[in-house]
Amino acid sequence: MAGKGAEPRRSVTSKVVAIIRSLGSGRSLTVTEIAQASDLPVSTVHRLVHELAAWGILLRGEGSRYEIALPLQSCGCNGAQPSMAAVVAPVLEDFSAAMRTGVRLGVLDGLAVSYVEKAHGCQPLSSFSSAARLPAHATALGKALLAFSAPGTVEHVIQQGLRGYTASTLTTAARLRHALKVTRLRGVAFAIGELAPDYSAVGAPVFGAGGEVIAALEVRLWDVRAELPGVIPALTIVARMLSRELTRTAPPSVQTERALES
Question: Is residue 76 within 8 Å of 130, Cβ to Cβ?
Answer without folding.
Answer: yes
